[in-house]
From TrEMBL:
GO molecular function, one term: UDP-glycosyltransferase activity
UniProt-recorded name of the protein: UDP-glucuronosyltransferase
Matching Gene3D superfamilies: Glycogen Phosphorylase B
Classification via InterPro entries: UDP-glycosyltransferase, UDP_glucos_trans
The entry's keywords: Glycosyltransferase, Transferase
Similarity comment: family membership: Belongs to the UDP-glycosyltransferase family.
Keyword Glycosyltransferase: yes
Signal peptide region: none
Length: 168
Protein backbone atom coordinates (compact mmCIF):
# COMPACT_ATOMS: atom_id res chain seq x y z
CA UNK A 1 0.00 0.00 0.00
CA UNK A 2 1.54 3.23 -1.18
CA UNK A 3 -0.87 6.16 -1.12
CA UNK A 4 0.06 8.24 -4.15
CA UNK A 5 -1.04 11.40 -2.39
CA UNK A 6 2.05 11.42 -0.20
CA UNK A 7 4.37 8.51 -1.13
CA UNK A 8 6.72 9.34 -4.00
CA UNK A 9 7.16 6.79 -6.75
CA UNK A 10 10.77 5.56 -6.96
CA UNK A 11 11.48 7.17 -10.34
CA UNK A 12 9.30 10.22 -9.84
CA UNK A 13 10.87 13.62 -10.47
CA UNK A 14 9.20 14.83 -7.27
CA UNK A 15 11.90 15.54 -4.72
CA UNK A 16 10.08 17.00 -1.74
CA UNK A 17 8.27 15.09 0.97
CA UNK A 18 5.54 17.74 1.11
CA UNK A 19 4.13 17.50 -2.43
CA UNK A 20 2.15 20.25 -4.11
CA UNK A 21 -0.91 19.42 -6.20
CA UNK A 22 1.08 19.43 -9.45
CA UNK A 23 3.76 17.23 -7.90
CA UNK A 24 1.05 14.80 -6.83
CA UNK A 25 -0.24 14.75 -10.40
CA UNK A 26 3.29 14.08 -11.64
CA UNK A 27 3.60 11.28 -9.09
CA UNK A 28 0.28 9.82 -10.28
CA UNK A 29 1.46 10.01 -13.90
CA UNK A 30 4.67 8.14 -12.99
CA UNK A 31 2.63 5.45 -11.27
CA UNK A 32 0.20 5.06 -14.19
CA UNK A 33 3.02 4.98 -16.73
CA UNK A 34 4.78 2.14 -14.93
CA UNK A 35 1.57 0.27 -14.19
CA UNK A 36 0.77 0.35 -17.93
CA UNK A 37 4.31 -0.75 -18.79
CA UNK A 38 4.00 -3.65 -16.35
CA UNK A 39 0.63 -4.75 -17.71
CA UNK A 40 1.21 -4.34 -21.44
CA UNK A 41 4.95 -4.89 -21.89
CA UNK A 42 6.58 -6.72 -18.98
CA UNK A 43 3.83 -9.10 -17.85
CA UNK A 44 3.16 -10.62 -21.30
CA UNK A 45 6.88 -11.36 -21.82
CA UNK A 46 7.32 -12.67 -18.30
CA UNK A 47 4.18 -14.80 -18.58
CA UNK A 48 5.46 -16.32 -21.81
CA UNK A 49 8.82 -17.17 -20.15
CA UNK A 50 7.06 -18.61 -17.09
CA UNK A 51 4.79 -20.84 -19.23
CA UNK A 52 7.75 -21.96 -21.36
CA UNK A 53 9.78 -23.19 -18.38
CA UNK A 54 6.93 -24.07 -15.98
CA UNK A 55 3.89 -25.10 -18.06
CA UNK A 56 1.81 -26.05 -15.00
CA UNK A 57 2.49 -22.80 -13.11
CA UNK A 58 -0.44 -20.55 -12.20
CA UNK A 59 -1.00 -17.41 -14.21
CA UNK A 60 1.57 -14.70 -13.48
CA UNK A 61 -1.07 -12.19 -12.38
CA UNK A 62 -2.33 -14.72 -9.81
CA UNK A 63 1.20 -15.12 -8.49
CA UNK A 64 1.70 -11.36 -8.48
CA UNK A 65 -1.30 -10.75 -6.24
CA UNK A 66 -0.74 -13.76 -3.96
CA UNK A 67 2.63 -13.02 -2.37
CA UNK A 68 3.50 -14.54 1.01
CA UNK A 69 6.75 -12.68 1.67
CA UNK A 70 8.58 -9.72 0.17
CA UNK A 71 12.21 -9.09 1.10
CA UNK A 72 13.11 -5.42 0.66
CA UNK A 73 16.73 -4.50 -0.02
CA UNK A 74 16.47 -1.27 1.96
CA UNK A 75 16.44 -0.04 5.51
CA UNK A 76 13.46 1.86 6.91
CA UNK A 77 15.70 4.51 8.45
CA UNK A 78 16.98 5.56 5.00
CA UNK A 79 13.63 6.32 3.40
CA UNK A 80 10.58 8.40 4.14
CA UNK A 81 7.95 6.73 6.33
CA UNK A 82 5.90 4.36 4.19
CA UNK A 83 3.11 2.02 5.30
CA UNK A 84 4.06 -1.64 4.91
CA UNK A 85 2.09 -4.80 5.48
CA UNK A 86 3.59 -7.44 7.82
CA UNK A 87 4.84 -9.67 4.98
CA UNK A 88 7.22 -6.93 3.75
CA UNK A 89 10.55 -7.33 5.55
CA UNK A 90 13.48 -4.92 5.30
CA UNK A 91 16.75 -6.82 4.95
CA UNK A 92 18.97 -4.00 3.65
CA UNK A 93 22.55 -4.52 4.73
CA UNK A 94 22.03 -8.22 5.45
CA UNK A 95 24.89 -9.09 3.10
CA UNK A 96 27.35 -6.75 4.83
CA UNK A 97 29.97 -8.51 6.93
CA UNK A 98 31.63 -6.91 9.96
CA UNK A 99 34.81 -5.04 9.00
CA UNK A 100 38.22 -6.57 9.63
CA UNK A 101 40.71 -4.84 11.90
CA UNK A 102 43.05 -2.38 10.22
CA UNK A 103 46.77 -3.13 10.07
CA UNK A 104 48.51 -1.74 13.17
CA UNK A 105 50.54 0.92 11.30
CA UNK A 106 47.44 2.23 9.54
CA UNK A 107 45.42 2.25 12.76
CA UNK A 108 48.17 4.26 14.48
CA UNK A 109 48.32 6.68 11.55
CA UNK A 110 44.57 7.31 11.81
CA UNK A 111 44.56 7.49 15.62
CA UNK A 112 47.40 10.04 15.65
CA UNK A 113 45.74 12.36 13.13
CA UNK A 114 44.77 15.26 15.40
CA UNK A 115 43.21 17.28 12.57
CA UNK A 116 41.51 14.29 10.95
CA UNK A 117 42.20 12.27 7.83
CA UNK A 118 41.24 12.71 4.19
CA UNK A 119 40.90 9.43 2.27
CA UNK A 120 41.60 9.86 -1.43
CA UNK A 121 40.78 7.14 -3.96
CA UNK A 122 39.90 7.24 -7.62
CA UNK A 123 37.77 4.13 -7.21
CA UNK A 124 38.38 0.76 -8.78
CA UNK A 125 38.28 1.78 -12.45
CA UNK A 126 40.90 4.52 -12.36
CA UNK A 127 44.38 3.94 -11.00
CA UNK A 128 46.19 6.80 -9.26
CA UNK A 129 49.53 5.57 -10.62
CA UNK A 130 48.25 6.23 -14.15
CA UNK A 131 47.58 9.93 -13.51
CA UNK A 132 49.51 12.26 -15.81
CA UNK A 133 52.38 13.97 -13.91
CA UNK A 134 50.70 17.40 -14.02
CA UNK A 135 47.50 16.08 -12.42
CA UNK A 136 49.42 14.02 -9.85
CA UNK A 137 51.51 17.06 -8.91
CA UNK A 138 48.37 19.20 -8.59
CA UNK A 139 46.97 16.70 -6.07
CA UNK A 140 50.28 16.57 -4.19
CA UNK A 141 50.42 20.37 -4.03
CA UNK A 142 46.83 20.58 -2.77
CA UNK A 143 47.38 17.82 -0.20
CA UNK A 144 50.55 19.48 1.10
CA UNK A 145 48.50 22.56 2.06
CA UNK A 146 46.05 20.57 4.20
CA UNK A 147 46.22 20.39 7.99
CA UNK A 148 44.76 16.91 7.83
CA UNK A 149 46.68 13.76 7.09
CA UNK A 150 45.91 12.23 3.70
CA UNK A 151 45.54 8.52 3.07
CA UNK A 152 45.94 8.01 -0.68
CA UNK A 153 44.99 4.75 -2.38
CA UNK A 154 48.15 4.43 -4.46
CA UNK A 155 48.94 1.25 -6.36
CA UNK A 156 52.76 1.25 -6.18
CA UNK A 157 55.20 1.68 -3.29
CA UNK A 158 56.78 5.00 -4.27
CA UNK A 159 55.37 8.44 -5.06
CA UNK A 160 57.92 11.10 -6.04
CA UNK A 161 57.36 14.44 -4.30
CA UNK A 162 55.08 12.98 -1.62
CA UNK A 163 54.50 15.54 1.18
CA UNK A 164 54.95 14.39 4.80
CA UNK A 165 51.20 14.43 5.54
CA UNK A 166 50.45 11.87 2.79
CA UNK A 167 50.49 8.11 3.40
CA UNK A 168 50.14 5.59 0.60
Amino acid sequence: PSPLSYIRQPISSVSSLDMSFTERLSNLFSYLMFAAMDKFILFPDQSRILKKHFPDAPDLSDLYYNVSLILLNSHESLNQPVPFVPNMVHIGGYHVTPPKKLPKDLQEYLDNAEEGVVYFSLGSNLKSKDLPPNKRNAFLKAFSKLKQKVLWKWEVDDLPGKPPNVKL
